[in-house]
Amino acid sequence: MGRRGDRTGPRTLAPLLRDRLETTWQSGWSRTVLLRRAAAGLLVLLAAALAVSPRAGSTADVPVVVAARDLAPGATLDAGAVQLQALPDAVVPDGSVHSVDEVVGRLLAAPLRRGEPITDVRLTGAALARSVAADPDAVSVPVRLSDPDVATLLHPGATVDVVTLGERQDQAVVLARGARVLTVLAPGKGSAASAGRLVLVALNPDAATRVAGASLSQAVTVTVR
Questions:
Q1: How far is CA 76 from CA 98, 108, 184, in A?
Q2: How far apart, in whole angstroms, are the C-alpha atoms of residue 218 and residue 220?
Q3: pLDDT 10s digits, 174-185
Q4: Is 153 left (phi over 0), alpha (psi -120 to 50) or beta?
Q5: Is this model's pTM higher than 0.70 or not?
Q6: Residue 178: left (phi > 0), alpha (psi -120 to 50), or beta?
Q7: Nearest to 160 by CA among 144, 146, 140, 174
Protein backbone atom coordinates (compact mmCIF):
# COMPACT_ATOMS: atom_id res chain seq x y z
CA MET A 1 0.00 0.00 0.00
CA GLY A 2 1.46 3.33 -1.04
CA ARG A 3 2.01 6.22 1.16
CA ARG A 4 -0.69 8.80 1.45
CA GLY A 5 1.79 11.47 0.38
CA ASP A 6 2.33 9.69 -2.95
CA ARG A 7 -1.30 10.11 -4.00
CA THR A 8 -1.60 12.42 -6.98
CA GLY A 9 -4.67 14.41 -7.96
CA PRO A 10 -6.49 14.31 -11.33
CA ARG A 11 -4.64 15.85 -14.30
CA THR A 12 -5.84 19.29 -15.25
CA LEU A 13 -7.45 20.05 -18.65
CA ALA A 14 -4.75 22.50 -19.82
CA PRO A 15 -1.90 19.95 -19.98
CA LEU A 16 -4.17 17.55 -21.84
CA LEU A 17 -4.98 20.14 -24.50
CA ARG A 18 -1.35 21.18 -24.77
CA ASP A 19 -0.25 17.60 -25.28
CA ARG A 20 -2.94 17.04 -27.91
CA LEU A 21 -1.95 20.16 -29.85
CA GLU A 22 1.73 19.25 -29.73
CA THR A 23 1.00 15.78 -31.01
CA THR A 24 -1.26 17.12 -33.75
CA TRP A 25 1.22 19.78 -34.87
CA GLN A 26 3.98 17.22 -35.15
CA SER A 27 1.91 15.41 -37.78
CA GLY A 28 2.44 16.99 -41.22
CA TRP A 29 -1.01 16.02 -42.51
CA SER A 30 -2.75 17.36 -39.43
CA ARG A 31 -0.78 20.59 -39.64
CA THR A 32 -1.93 21.10 -43.23
CA VAL A 33 -5.54 20.52 -42.23
CA LEU A 34 -5.28 23.06 -39.43
CA LEU A 35 -3.78 25.66 -41.75
CA ARG A 36 -6.53 25.13 -44.30
CA ARG A 37 -9.23 25.41 -41.66
CA ALA A 38 -7.66 28.60 -40.32
CA ALA A 39 -7.50 30.11 -43.82
CA ALA A 40 -11.12 29.15 -44.46
CA GLY A 41 -12.15 30.76 -41.21
CA LEU A 42 -10.38 33.98 -42.15
CA LEU A 43 -12.10 34.03 -45.56
CA VAL A 44 -15.49 33.58 -43.90
CA LEU A 45 -14.78 36.48 -41.56
CA LEU A 46 -13.61 38.65 -44.47
CA ALA A 47 -16.75 37.89 -46.50
CA ALA A 48 -18.94 38.75 -43.53
CA ALA A 49 -17.11 42.05 -43.05
CA LEU A 50 -17.55 42.97 -46.72
CA ALA A 51 -21.23 42.08 -46.60
CA VAL A 52 -22.00 44.50 -43.79
CA SER A 53 -19.64 47.29 -44.90
CA PRO A 54 -20.28 49.77 -47.75
CA ARG A 55 -19.25 48.50 -51.18
CA ALA A 56 -15.69 49.47 -51.98
CA GLY A 57 -15.48 52.07 -54.69
CA SER A 58 -19.26 52.50 -54.90
CA THR A 59 -20.45 55.93 -55.96
CA ALA A 60 -23.75 57.67 -56.16
CA ASP A 61 -25.89 57.59 -59.30
CA VAL A 62 -25.50 60.42 -61.80
CA PRO A 63 -28.39 61.98 -63.78
CA VAL A 64 -27.77 61.50 -67.52
CA VAL A 65 -29.84 62.58 -70.52
CA VAL A 66 -31.03 59.54 -72.49
CA ALA A 67 -33.28 59.02 -75.49
CA ALA A 68 -36.93 58.71 -74.48
CA ARG A 69 -37.67 56.73 -77.65
CA ASP A 70 -35.86 55.47 -80.73
CA LEU A 71 -34.47 58.48 -82.58
CA ALA A 72 -33.33 58.79 -86.19
CA PRO A 73 -30.25 60.72 -87.35
CA GLY A 74 -30.96 64.28 -88.40
CA ALA A 75 -33.74 64.68 -85.84
CA THR A 76 -34.01 67.95 -83.96
CA LEU A 77 -34.32 67.11 -80.29
CA ASP A 78 -37.16 68.46 -78.19
CA ALA A 79 -38.11 67.98 -74.55
CA GLY A 80 -40.29 64.98 -75.41
CA ALA A 81 -37.48 63.13 -77.19
CA VAL A 82 -35.19 62.93 -74.17
CA GLN A 83 -35.36 62.37 -70.43
CA LEU A 84 -33.12 62.23 -67.37
CA GLN A 85 -32.12 58.84 -66.02
CA ALA A 86 -29.92 58.03 -63.02
CA LEU A 87 -26.98 55.76 -63.88
CA PRO A 88 -24.06 54.53 -61.77
CA ASP A 89 -21.10 56.83 -62.26
CA ALA A 90 -18.90 53.91 -63.31
CA VAL A 91 -20.99 53.21 -66.43
CA VAL A 92 -21.66 56.80 -67.54
CA PRO A 93 -19.97 57.35 -70.96
CA ASP A 94 -17.47 60.15 -71.42
CA GLY A 95 -19.04 63.27 -72.92
CA SER A 96 -22.48 62.51 -71.50
CA VAL A 97 -24.99 65.34 -71.14
CA HIS A 98 -26.53 65.99 -67.73
CA SER A 99 -29.18 68.60 -68.49
CA VAL A 100 -32.14 68.35 -70.84
CA ASP A 101 -31.79 72.06 -71.67
CA GLU A 102 -28.35 71.36 -73.16
CA VAL A 103 -29.76 69.15 -75.92
CA VAL A 104 -33.14 70.72 -76.73
CA GLY A 105 -32.92 72.20 -80.22
CA ARG A 106 -29.73 70.30 -81.07
CA LEU A 107 -29.42 68.13 -84.17
CA LEU A 108 -28.87 64.41 -83.73
CA ALA A 109 -26.05 63.07 -85.88
CA ALA A 110 -26.54 59.34 -85.30
CA PRO A 111 -29.45 57.02 -84.46
CA LEU A 112 -30.22 56.36 -80.81
CA ARG A 113 -32.12 53.56 -79.13
CA ARG A 114 -34.57 54.28 -76.32
CA GLY A 115 -32.65 54.60 -73.05
CA GLU A 116 -29.27 55.18 -74.72
CA PRO A 117 -27.22 58.02 -73.16
CA ILE A 118 -26.66 61.09 -75.34
CA THR A 119 -23.02 62.14 -75.65
CA ASP A 120 -21.37 65.12 -77.31
CA VAL A 121 -20.35 63.09 -80.39
CA ARG A 122 -23.98 62.07 -81.04
CA LEU A 123 -24.89 65.73 -81.58
CA THR A 124 -23.79 67.91 -84.45
CA GLY A 125 -21.16 70.43 -83.46
CA ALA A 126 -17.46 70.94 -82.93
CA ALA A 127 -16.92 67.80 -80.85
CA LEU A 128 -18.45 65.58 -83.55
CA ALA A 129 -16.53 67.28 -86.37
CA ARG A 130 -13.20 66.88 -84.58
CA SER A 131 -13.95 63.26 -83.72
CA VAL A 132 -15.09 62.11 -87.16
CA ALA A 133 -12.48 64.05 -89.14
CA ALA A 134 -9.68 63.23 -86.67
CA ASP A 135 -8.65 66.87 -87.02
CA PRO A 136 -8.62 69.24 -84.01
CA ASP A 137 -9.34 72.17 -86.32
CA ALA A 138 -12.22 70.58 -88.24
CA VAL A 139 -15.54 72.39 -88.47
CA SER A 140 -18.92 71.32 -89.81
CA VAL A 141 -20.56 72.83 -92.89
CA PRO A 142 -23.96 72.06 -94.44
CA VAL A 143 -24.06 71.07 -98.10
CA ARG A 144 -27.37 71.01 -99.95
CA LEU A 145 -27.07 68.42 -102.67
CA SER A 146 -28.47 69.29 -106.08
CA ASP A 147 -29.41 65.63 -106.63
CA PRO A 148 -31.36 64.38 -103.59
CA ASP A 149 -30.88 60.75 -104.63
CA VAL A 150 -27.17 61.05 -103.88
CA ALA A 151 -28.02 61.50 -100.21
CA THR A 152 -29.40 57.96 -100.06
CA LEU A 153 -25.89 56.68 -100.77
CA LEU A 154 -24.36 58.50 -97.83
CA HIS A 155 -23.97 57.57 -94.19
CA PRO A 156 -22.19 59.10 -91.19
CA GLY A 157 -18.45 58.59 -91.49
CA ALA A 158 -18.42 58.31 -95.29
CA THR A 159 -15.62 60.13 -97.13
CA VAL A 160 -16.67 62.35 -100.05
CA ASP A 161 -15.33 65.07 -102.33
CA VAL A 162 -17.48 68.18 -102.70
CA VAL A 163 -17.80 69.33 -106.31
CA THR A 164 -19.64 71.92 -108.35
CA LEU A 165 -19.88 72.97 -111.98
CA GLY A 166 -17.21 75.16 -113.53
CA GLU A 167 -17.65 77.86 -116.11
CA ARG A 168 -18.51 75.19 -118.65
CA GLN A 169 -21.35 72.76 -118.02
CA ASP A 170 -19.11 69.75 -118.65
CA GLN A 171 -16.38 70.94 -116.32
CA ALA A 172 -16.44 69.91 -112.66
CA VAL A 173 -14.57 71.84 -110.01
CA VAL A 174 -13.54 70.14 -106.79
CA LEU A 175 -14.27 72.43 -103.86
CA ALA A 176 -12.98 70.12 -101.14
CA ARG A 177 -11.44 66.66 -100.96
CA GLY A 178 -11.78 64.14 -98.16
CA ALA A 179 -14.81 65.62 -96.44
CA ARG A 180 -16.31 63.35 -93.78
CA VAL A 181 -20.08 63.00 -93.60
CA LEU A 182 -21.43 63.82 -90.15
CA THR A 183 -25.13 63.26 -90.81
CA VAL A 184 -27.75 63.31 -93.54
CA LEU A 185 -30.82 65.32 -92.61
CA ALA A 186 -34.30 64.06 -93.23
CA PRO A 187 -36.02 65.39 -96.38
CA GLY A 188 -37.47 68.85 -95.91
CA LYS A 189 -40.96 69.98 -96.73
CA GLY A 190 -42.26 72.39 -99.30
CA SER A 191 -39.59 74.49 -101.01
CA ALA A 192 -36.86 72.91 -98.90
CA ALA A 193 -37.68 69.49 -100.33
CA SER A 194 -37.37 70.70 -103.92
CA ALA A 195 -34.05 72.41 -103.16
CA GLY A 196 -32.35 69.09 -102.32
CA ARG A 197 -31.20 67.10 -99.28
CA LEU A 198 -28.95 68.71 -96.72
CA VAL A 199 -25.78 66.89 -95.67
CA LEU A 200 -23.48 67.98 -92.87
CA VAL A 201 -19.79 67.36 -93.52
CA ALA A 202 -16.57 67.99 -91.59
CA LEU A 203 -13.77 69.95 -93.23
CA ASN A 204 -10.81 72.08 -92.29
CA PRO A 205 -11.78 75.77 -91.87
CA ASP A 206 -10.45 76.94 -95.25
CA ALA A 207 -12.24 74.23 -97.23
CA ALA A 208 -15.41 74.71 -95.19
CA THR A 209 -15.46 78.43 -96.03
CA ARG A 210 -14.95 77.69 -99.71
CA VAL A 211 -17.77 75.13 -99.77
CA ALA A 212 -20.15 77.35 -97.83
CA GLY A 213 -19.52 80.28 -100.20
CA ALA A 214 -20.04 78.18 -103.32
CA SER A 215 -23.26 76.70 -101.92
CA LEU A 216 -24.84 80.15 -101.83
CA SER A 217 -24.93 80.52 -105.61
CA GLN A 218 -23.99 77.20 -107.22
CA ALA A 219 -25.34 73.67 -107.40
CA VAL A 220 -23.20 71.42 -105.24
CA THR A 221 -22.95 67.65 -105.02
CA VAL A 222 -20.52 65.04 -103.74
CA THR A 223 -18.64 62.09 -105.09
CA VAL A 224 -18.30 59.07 -102.80
CA ARG A 225 -14.88 57.54 -102.26
A1: 18, 6, 12
A2: 6
A3: 999 999 999 888
A4: alpha
A5: no
A6: left
A7: 174
